[in-house]
Design brief:
Length: 304
């Protein structure tokens, strides 16, 4: 059970309490917050309230988040495209339509299910039973390189490298439109979208610092092939940042056009290069995940 306390500020006056809490807690959905309110887990100035209560300056809020009952996550014999493996780390090339770790609606056929089988439970336990070995993640329809840690020491070392932005993460993407600049940097804090809870957005008030460097590799008139390098690693970072420039990723129906002319399954985004200092060898290692077939076919089509 977790108890979180808030003191309402003047600028939030008259916001519905469910909206206020959703803005404060980007990792929680508004529907989940409404459920907690209905269950009496939100107290304002010592009294329970309804979801349409409008907060006032100096309101004292207490939110209680019950401890979740975590389901059993079972090993599954799912083939892995292994780029590198030793006794400390496993680097794989994740395919499309595969979730990294279990979550609501996705408790099977995830990367975690696959690595539990492959590693025979020899995984770090720092992130709990739902995310054993998982240091970072990529979206379900993003392909490419991710690293899994086999022990807590390796996990902590790589987590520390992520924190100071020393891990190399280079992506390949195809975006809509013709980017004028040859290269550039996009800076904009990313947080939960204030209206659409399924989306992230550049959120100056509640977002976390986010920096993406991009470089044009090739132009195809209506589309541009780019390399994006992450300095930070926020949820949907490249997708949000490129859309903010007016160049959403091709196939990204969440941040771009609702229809895609190429019948794609999600955004054209591939985590191509992953580099880090090995936790026990103490030397820099870099891995490259080859572009998936659908991506290569698109590039060939545009070149013709």
């Amino acid at each position: 059970m977790e108890e979180i306390i808030f003191d309402v500020q003047e600028e939030d006056k008259n916001l519905r309490i469910d909206r206020y809490l959703a803005n404060q807690l980007s990792e929680q959905s508004r529907s989940y917050i409404q459920k907690l309110i209905r269950e009496g887990q939100v107290v304002v100035n010592g009294k329970t309230v309804k979801a349409n209560y409008k907060v006032q300056p100096f309101d004292h809020l207490t939110l209680t988040i019950p401890q979740l009952q975590e389901p059993d996550i079972l090993p599954e014999d799912i083939p892995l495209d292994i780029l590198y493996e030793d006794e400390d780390v496993l680097v794989i090339n994740k395919p499309k339509n595969m979730v990294v770790h279990p979550s609501a609606g996705h408790y099977t056929h995830t990367v975690v299910n696959a690595v539990l089988f492959h590693c025979k439970n020899q995984l770090s336990g720092i992130n709990g039973v739902l995310r054993p070995g998982i240091v970072h993640r990529i979206d379900m329809d993003t392909t490419g390189a991710i690293v899994i840690c086999k022990n807590d020491y390796s996990h902590q070392v790589l987590a520390d490298q992520l924190k100071v932005h020393s891990i190399t993460r280079k992506y390949r993407a195809i975006v809509c439109g013709n980017i004028k600049e040859d290269e550039g940097t996009i800076e904009g804090p990313i947080g939960r979208h204030p209206v659409d809870r399924k989306k992230m957005a550049i959120n100056e008030k509640n977002g976390k610092s986010a920096i993406t460097h991009f470089k044009v590799l090739e132009r195809f008139g209506n589309y541009t092939y780019v390399e994006c390098q992450l300095e930070t690693g926020r949820t949907h970072q490249i997708r949000v940042h490129m859309a903010s420039k007016g160049h959403p990723l091709l196939g990204d129906t969440l941040y771009g056009p609702a229809k895609c002319p190429f019948h794609l399954q999600g955004q054209c985004l591939h985590a191509m290069v992953l580099g880090f200092i090995h936790p026990t060898k103490n030397e820099y290692m870099e891995f490259t995940a080859p572009l998936p077939d659908y991506f290569l076919h698109l590039l060939q089509k545009f070149k013709k």
